[in-house]
Amino acid sequence: MPSDRSIFGRDVPAAVWRPSPELRAEARLGRFLATLGSADLETIQARAVDDPAWFWEAAAADLGLDWQRPPTQVLDASGGPEWTRWWRGGAFNHAVASIDGRAANDPDAAALTWEGEDGAVRRLTNAELRAEVVTASRMFAAAGVRAGDRVGIFLPMLVETVVATLALGRLGAIYTPIFSGYGAPAVATRLQDCEASVLVTADGFLRRGRAVEMKAVADAAVELAPTVRRVIVVRRLGSAATRTPWRAGRDRSWDEAMDAARAAILDEGDEPAPPETDPETPYMLIYTSGTTGRPKGAVHVHGGFPIKAAQDLAHTFDLRAGDALFWFTDLGWMMGPWAISGSLLLDARLVIYEGAPDYPEPDRLWAIVERHGVTHLGLSPTVVRSLIPHGPDPIRSHHLRSLRVLGSTGEPWDPESYRWFFEQVGRRRCPIMNISGGTDIIGCFLAPLPVLPLRTTSLQSVALGMDVDVFDESGRPLRDGVGYLVCKQPAPSMTRSLWNNDVVYMETYWSKFPGVWNHGDWALHDKAGHWYLFGRADDTLKIAGRRVGPGEIEAALIEHPAVSEAAAIGVPDELKGTELVCFVVLHTAIEESAALRAELTQHVVDALGKVYKPKSLHFVDDLPKTRSAKILRRLIQLRFLGRAELGDLSSVSNPSAIEEIARAR
Q: Which of the 8 DSSP states describes residue 296?
């Protein structure tokens, strides 16, 4: 393709997608820039870095947020950047802002669409969603939940899941999202840490046509979490459940509790107005995976992450009123809360799905897009790779004309899978907004801007308004080299601390580079201005005195057409200090062989140099991952080295893969 000069003034000779002049003018970002008086993004970004209060005041105005009381001061960093407080003097409740205005302005417009794996569909209008949330708030209050109380939500993606998160926020309580596939120890750890008083769960859900019963898992977790005094159960399976265990006096049906709340509201007459909420009031504790130690609870507030989620979706994804966002996720992954808050604050429709991406047929996701008019579809690279073997025919059997934007996050892309997503799903007309944030930021540090060209696998840009950089070991900015991803200015969605653990919060994010947020990821900012990620910095390998991120090794392996997934670890070596060991998952129908092993080994050498020649390369059927599809390199390393103590394994989505690593020794 010919070279293209972007708004930033940089050449993009290998752009896979370019915005049309019409899109640049019509996009929410284009209109936002016009209100700021400049179409030059470099100028806007520079001013945002110099004056973050100016930028976030303008961004909040552009989003049209429903303040209960407008703030008098955007940010207060008098306690240092680590303890910045936002929207001083204002009042903002993210749940009220998400539903009350849209219900008043357009009560019959669609707000939420749910599809179950069995084909069941539920749709709620703005007015219906608000009514459910108000009733659920009354239900939780009747269960003894008060402002500041913690409530665990251990549910699949259901209508009730969305309603519960908003109802607790409206009430001023704090919810903890818990991945629906966790075992009892992982659920219990989170309930114990936040001292939850109530747990919301379900009798179960459907996965590949099978009833997955959750209540027994919830009961086992509650036995280990003595602060939980009430369990509210959504009967998703109903008669499909075998026999749901029940404890009288503690357990209550969601439907019965909601009916009682409706009756109470009718008896009381006028609905009381929700109390004003300080924007710094916590509303969610979301926990890290716990794969490198005990899970840590990131504290998120009403005036933080929801506002950043809306800004991400508006300025990066160009999500507009009436659009439909479907991000294939679970509530326990940060993208679940992100999709709920961001879409509803922007008057868009949220689409959620309960089941597997390729059941009962491999066209399931594409059928959902067509059936529900999805405009914005988000899939992780792992999900895309799992769908590639089915070929393009399942996609071509559906009209995907409604799609306008694709999204992804969670892990680095390989070029082959990226191109498949772009060409087969997006028909080469939908940009892939490849974003990067984290449980502790729940907003984008890096994110493409829809008015700029995109290059394959690139994250393209710093997210609008963010002051992000790459530092070397001594804290100096680094170009064209892999270094630490940092943020030099506070942002509204940064965690306010870790639950009951300010010391670990300071050590984790602020100690390596004082006054600068260290995100813990390896990143590259190349000379052309593009951004790439290479995995966690704490996974760094130092081979023959040279540092390398395992993501670079893995990216080289995945470029080979035989390789589906890869993991690289370091093992002790007397000569080099560390030797490289690689694990490879091959594409379906590719046979393992000594010749292929040698070819892949040489492929790494050709890509990165002789010093990085793997000591050994092993074929495996699967790699251990978290529930959000992140490869657990540290666990792979411990198991390969034969270490007995592996830590908490409750967050591992596929424990059988651990033993496969052991057999590779």
A: -
Taken in order 279, 282, 283, 288, the sign of the CA dihedral is: positive
Tell me the per-residue pLDDT of 159-194, one tens digit each, with 9 for 90 and over. 999 999 999 999 999 999 998 988 888 899 899 999
DSSP β-bridge partners for residue 652: 626
- 3-state secondary structure labels for all residues of 617-659: EEECCCCCEECCCCECHHHHHHHHCCCCCCCCCCCECCCHHHH
Say if residue 270 is exposed, middle or buried (CB neighbours under 10 Å; 0-12, 13-18, 19+).
exposed
Tell me the sheet residues that pair with 73: 88
pLDDT, tens digit, for every residue of 615-655? Answer: 999 999 999 887 666 788 888 988 888 876 666 666 677 88
Cα Rg of the chain, angstroms: 24
Helix axes 94-105, 335-345, angle to 10 degrees: 40
Question: 622: helix, coil or strand?
Answer: coil
β-partners of residue 209 are none
Find tokens 């670890």 and name the residue.
569
| Number of other CB atoms surrounding residue 108 within 10 Å | 9
Rounded Cα distance between 184 and 163, Å, is 24
How many other C-beta atoms lie within 10 A of the C-beta of residue 250? 13
Q: Both tokens of residue 662?
A: 């052991």
368 vs 457: which has the higher pLDDT: 368
Give the E-state strand segments of 78-197 in sequence order: 85-88, 110-115, 121-125, 150-153, 174-177
Peptide bond into 279 cis (omega under 30): no
The DSSP symbol for 631 reads B
Token digits for 570? 């370091």
Give the strand order in the sheet containing 468-471.
Answer: 468-471, 482-487, 517-525, 531-536
The encoded tokens of residue 255 equal 């439907």
CA atoms within 13 A on the CB side of 49: 13
Partners of 5 in the beta sheet?
11
Is there a contact between 222 and 231 (Cβ–Cβ < 8 Å)? yes
Tell me the longest C-alpha to C-alpha distance in the chain.
79
State the pLDDT at residue 609.
75
Tokens representing 313 are: 């979706």
In the chain, what are the domains?
A: 15-95+284-534 (3.40.50.12780), 129-272 (3.40.50.980), 540-663 (3.30.300.30)
173 three-state secondary structure: coil
How, if at all, do strands 577-586 and 616-619 pair?
Answer: parallel
**Given phi > 0 = left and psi -120 to 50 = alpha, else beta, which region is 177?**
beta
Q: Which residues contact 302 (CB under 8 A, 6 or more apart)?
A: 92, 93, 94, 169, 277, 278, 279, 280, 281, 283
Q: Cα–Cα distance between 429 and 431 in angstroms, integer?
A: 7
Residue 238: Cβ-neighbour burial (10 angstroms; 0-12, 13-18, 19+): exposed
Distance of alpha carbon 467 from alpha carbon 208, whole angstroms: 43
Number of neighbouring beta carbons within 10 Å of residue 641: 12
Contact criterion met (CB below 8 Å) for 365 and 336:
no
Enter the tokens of residue 620: 């495996």
Task: Give the burial class of 367: count Cβ atoms within 10 A of its Cβ; 0-12 exposed, 13-18 middle, 19 or more buried.
Answer: middle
